[in-house]
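Thread: "does anyone have the structure for this chain?"

Original post by V.I.:
We have the sequence but no experimental structure in hand. Need at least a predicted one for the grant figures.
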Amino acid sequence: MAEYSDRYTLKQWAEDDRPREKMLHNGRHALSNAELLAIILGSGNKKETAVELAQRILLDCRNNLDILGKRSIHELTHFPGIGPAKAVGLVACFELGRRHRQAEAIQRTQIRSSTDIFEWMYPSLGDLPHEEFWVLYLNKANRVLEREKISAGGLTGTVVDLRIILRNALQKLACGLVLVHNHPSGNLQPSDADISLTKKVRDAATLLDITVLDHIIIGEKNYYSFADNGLL
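Reply from O.Q.:
Generated one for you, tokens below.
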């Protein structure tokens, strides 16, 4: 068996097998996830090429890019060959991807359905390891005036102050509200606390002639809509 020191480096590979050259000749769709990741890494370590290192990282993440996207800088540096600079680069790439998706969603500024809400907010909440609670403030035509993070908490909950939501709604002259929070566990079913909070916000907002159109719970790939399920 060849020792690691006898392995070929990427520069010794056939040109068509090198990730950068492969992308130049065949386009980005021709590359595997490991090859794309190898381009970002730039190099491997003493025992692995960049592609082999990328394959090992993906294997550790069960070949799931969502899992990889949640890894912190500290967690990434546990891989031999991944120092702080490479870890920061990886995290930055995933963050750009999230912002790119958000930029696409911003083009659809009018909320027409629960799916619109999910597509708008998923890039911000879909892969967070902790809960966050956001509110979308809408005008009379259900166009988003502003979105705002109200609170961030732990793995299983976050504290929401009803007074902050209503104060902000009045300041923005909002006619409608959409409540959004995430469940990092992936369980989309609303808790008793979720249901209670939704009713409190709905009832208080009604007194101010403001409508709560929906409350969306976002998981890793899907969502739960209070409106769609008759809870508003």
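V.I.: this helps a lot. The beta strands are 132-138, 144-152, 176-182, 211-218, 223-225.
O.Q.: and Residues 96 and 102 are 10 Å apart (CA to CA).
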